[in-house]
Amino acid sequence: MAKTDIYTVDTSHLDFDPNDVWDKYAAERDKRIIKEGFGQYQDIKGDFSNFIDDHYVEPGFTRDPIEDDVEVVIIGGGFGGLLAGAHLRQAGIKDIMVIDKAGDFGGTWYWNRYPGAQCDVEAYVYMPLLEEMDYVPKERYSHAPEILQHSINIAKKFNLYEKACFQTEVTKVHWDEESNRWIIETDRKDQIKAKFVAMSNGLLTRPKLPGIKGIDKYKGHTFHTSRWDYDYTGGSSEGDLSNLADKRVAIIGTGATAVQCIPHLGAAAKELFVFQRTPSSVDVRNNAPTNPEWAAKLQPGWHRHRMENFELVLAGGTPKKMKTAGTENIEAADKKINEVDDGWTDAANSAKKMLKQRPKLSAEQKKEVRELADMKKMQEIRDRVGNIVEDQKTADALKAYYWQFCKRPCFHDEYLQTYNRPNVTLVDTKGQGVDEVTANGVIVDGVEYAVDCLIFATGFEVGSNYTSQSGYDVIGRDSLSLKEKWKDGLSTFHGLFSKGFPNCFFLGFTQTAVTQSVTHTLDEQAQHLAYVIKHAINADATTVETTQAAENDWVGVINSHSESVEQHYIKCTPGYYNNEGKTGNNNGFLAGQFGAGPEKFFRILKDWREEGNLQGLEIE
User: Fold this and answer.
1) Ranges of each domain in the chain
2) For 313, what's the count of Cα atoms within 13 Å in the CB-facing half-sphere?
3) Which of 72, 121, 161, 272 has the smallest C-beta neighbourhood within 10 Å, fewest atoms?
């Protein structure tokens, strides 16, 4: 029976019953709960060890071990590391070494070269340092090759290749009290000393596999989407997977990666079976080439303004207008406050309109209105499925019943249409996942689907602890292990510093702002890092370390916002955002982050820098 009177505000204008939707959301969530949480996934090893190999370099690379003493070592060559390096260069820091296990810069965009790989946040917002690089993306939503090339171009411009160590995996980082240096050890037998270390290991690089019964028994061809095997499929990141014309192919997973590569598989394979546990919400993308007239009108500061505009609109704020600020419609440029105006910001716009129509609401009622706006948006997305997918059973299985940001929203204009192809079959596991893998195929509900190729679109290791994701531990003062210190949750100051780890900086989701455009947070962190390191060098300081009091205060700030965030994700369908439904263990992708919005977080960092006294740090 549907709940009654959940909402105190008027809901008569809606073309659906929000009480029924609540019940449906709860039912869909409950059937997806798996007691193992992230334990349902397995390490990539043994027969699957090649899934983490670098297929983009020539095999057999060797070099002599390095012994060096460097001012700054950056671990990770993705956008976090690139932004750290760029801002350090701008601060006048010359001696920088970047270490990465990949064969080049790019991070996520180095590894993920699957067909259709594309940014699902507007490129004018997502791609960093656009003005510094004097570059405007070719399309509104850039494809992976352009983003990878942009990464390489950043590294070239800021001379980060000079001491870059690629195909090199860090195995241990430990603090040497006698020399006041970090010692970085690698699988190349390197012994590198560094005054400062910046950890920018990234999140979407270490693939994970589901612990499906019999997964190691399959005898056909198999690979993970992050290590796409074009030798087997043919084609390129643009598609044309011609070698699959006589192949029966299975793909496990329907998340953001699968949404982008499934249209290419469906167009090429003799038969394609898509195994779904939870459907993604898939909204319109509406990609288009960059309007040259618009690009010609861009004024200095346009990029940061657009980044801030995007996040402010998402957070329900009212951003400032900027003269000739960008929209695709040049004539409306000075009239529109929501400059990006995309699927991400649509629900926020809807909520804002609904709130304007009801000015005299309590705080709780305003929350209700935002929930209703979210429901309305998700209903529109479900209606889109019904309007596109011809088979009713398939369409119903593809409809997402959860709050929009419980899982990463997707945007695509060919994904749903793929299920109208006669050679494509959606195998909906009703939230339970695949039952078993055999030597010849995949079993669901007692039916075996024999396939020649099995592709895993099962994502990356993002729900484990920081050191597990990094692949190494960090040993600070008095042999303090970062793994041990953070075993019960993150503990930092400003998300960048942690007591017991002097001259060490953590970039990524470490008690910082959560933004839909991750590069925005990384950029703000990199500016903060460069400011502190420059100050320490100018002061001829030996160490920079947070005080315990400052760290405790920051953890208190994080905890003060955690309850509302936790309550939201408790309602969500399990996924990596909420630690597969096992909330409260401080390990999920969004656990322990700053919950008061990115604008407030970035303002805290900026105000702190402007004060100029580095309050909360011990500089000796």
Assistant:
1) 1-61+209-286+342-459, 67-206+462-555+593-619, 289-339
2) 25
3) 161
Q: 504 has which bridge partners?
A: 197
Whether domain 67-206+462-555+593-619 has CATH 1.20.1180.10: the reply is: no
Cα dist from 266 to 7, 227, 236, 280, whole Å:
43, 19, 15, 17
Cα gap 427→454, rounded to integer Å: 14
Token pair of 444 as six digits: 């669901």
User: Could you give the C-alpha distances from 286 to 139, 239, 411, 566, in angstroms and in order?
Assistant: 11, 19, 9, 33
Q: Which amino acid is at 249?
A: V
Q: What does the alpha-carbon distance between residue 467 and residue 286 come to, in Å, rounded to a whole number?
A: 39
Q: How far apart are CA 601 and CA 512, in angstroms?
A: 7
> Which is it for the CA torsion 313, 318, 322, 324, positive or negative?
positive
Q: What letter would DSSP give residue 493?
A: B
Q: How far apart are CA 620 and CA 602, in angstroms?
A: 27
Give the integer Cα–Cα distance in Å for 465 and 487.
7
* Residues 110, 114, 119, 124, CA torsion sign: positive
Between CA 531 and CA 94 the distance in angstroms is 15
Greatest mean pLDDT among 31-35, 365-369, 443-447, 465-469 lies in 443-447
C-alpha separations of 41 from 8, 31, 34, 297, 579 in Å:
42, 18, 11, 49, 12
Q: Are 394 and 419 in contact (CB under 8 A)?
A: yes
Report the pLDDT value the prediction gives residue 488, as an integer from 0 to 100.
86
Strand ranges (E), 44-166 = 67-75, 96-99
Cβ proximity of 340 and 122 under 8 Å: yes
Both tokens assigned to 128: 């960093």
Nearest-angstrom CA–CA distance, 375 and 595:
22
CA distance 127 to 336: 22
Give Cα separations from 460 to 120, 201, 248, 255, 576 (angstroms): 17, 13, 25, 11, 9
Q: What is the C-alpha to C-alpha distance for residues 597 and 397, in angstroms, rounded to an integer? A: 34
Predicted confidence band of residue 333 (pLDDT cuts 50, 70, 90)? very low
CATH code given to domain 1-61+209-286+342-459: 3.50.50.60
In percent, the amount of the chain with pLDDT more than 70 equals: 88
Provide the β-strand partners of residue 192: 68, 184
Amino acid at 533: I
pLDDT of residue 335: 41
**Distance (Å, whole) CA 602 – CA 424:** 46
The mean pLDDT value for 117-127 works out to 96
Q: What does residue 271 show for φ and ψ, rounded to 5 degrees?
A: -140, 145
Query: Which single residue is written with the structure tokens 């105006």?
Result: 341
Residues with Cβ within 8 Å of 176's Cβ and at least 6 positions away in sequence, in order, are 182, 183, 193
Same fold across 1-61+209-286+342-459 and 67-206+462-555+593-619: yes
> Higher pLDDT residue, 487 or 290?
290
Measured N-to-C along each axis, helices 363-388 and 343-356 cross at an angle, to the nearest 10 degrees, of: 140
Rg (the chain; Cα; Å): 24
Q: Indicate whether this model's pTM tops 0.70.
A: yes
Chain-wide mean pLDDT for the chain? Answer: 89
Backbone φ and ψ of 486, nearest 5°: -100, 15
Summarize pLDDT for 207-253 with one digit per residue, the tens: 777 778 898 899 999 999 999 999 999 999 999 999 999 999 999 99
